[in-house]
Amino acid sequence: MYARKADFFDSQTGAPWATEAYGPEELAKLDRVFASAGPLEGKTVVEPGCGTGRLTEILARRVGPSGRVIAMDISRGMVASAKERLADQVHVELRQGRLEACPLPGEGVDLALCHQVFPHLEDQEGALSLLTRSLKPDGRLIICHFKPLSVINDVHRKAGTAVEQDMIPEHGEMEGMCTEAGLRIIELSDDKRGYFLCARKA
Predict the structure, then answer these.
(1) Which ranges carry the Methyltransferase type domain (predicted)?
(2) What is the DSSP string of 116-174?
(3) Rounded to two decimals, what is the model's pTM?
(4) Cα angle for residues 197, 201, 202 (degrees, 5° grid)
(5) Which of 49, 75, 112, 169, by CA, is between 20 and 30 Å from 195?
């Protein structure tokens, strides 16, 4: 399935939703992410599903040269675009491949940020466990989308493409998955501002 999804996202590399700078409404929604993450200067951040690097670029500024961003995506086209965008950011490591196959520093990550990518992970339980193991004892995991769960799942369901079965789990299932992975949910909200989950290592 990842090969089919990679082909799909390769075809979307130049699409406006993948390349255009965030607008004021989107930036306001990202403020919630950074408020929950806390100061990031000097910190290590992992970003699965980085796409063309729009958010990666913001993260790079926030962690600064003393920090580190490890970002990855299954799409070769999107990673190539991200590398071009972030060519001068030596503290950003961009990888092409699936999260499950990308080695992460054990208990060395301050923030794992899954922005608009969680539904596309084939093994969501495994991904949560992998990311949890990478977190420092006080590390946080954030899963966020600009739209609420019902909208995201409906759009994917009707897409007729490689992402038509990619869903965000309902709240009860997600809570169980987080607990099983060793996470304690701090906030889980799902409203007009979008879907937002913030958890700490239990």
Answers:
(1) 47-143
(2) S-GGG-S-HHHHHHHHHHHEEEEEEEEEEESS-HHHHHHHHHTS-STTTT--PPPHHHH
(3) 0.97
(4) 110
(5) 75
Distance CA 73, CA 198 (A): 22
CA separation for the pair 61, 33 (Å, rounded): 15
Stated as kind and residue range, the H or E segment containing 188 is strand 183-191
Q: CA–CA separation, 102 vs 88, rounded Å? A: 23
Which residue bears the tokens 């493409």? 161
E strands along 52-128, which residues? 68-73, 92-96, 109-115
Distance of alpha carbon 30 from alpha carbon 19, whole angstroms: 17
pLDDT at 94: 98
Q: What angle do helix axes 54-63 and 76-85 make, rounded to 10 degrees? A: 40
Nearest Cα residue to 114 out of 59, 154, 159, 151? 59
Going from N- to C-terminal start, the domains of the chain cover 1-201
188/78 Cα distance (integer angstroms): 29
Is 1-201 in CATH node 3.40.50.150?
Answer: yes
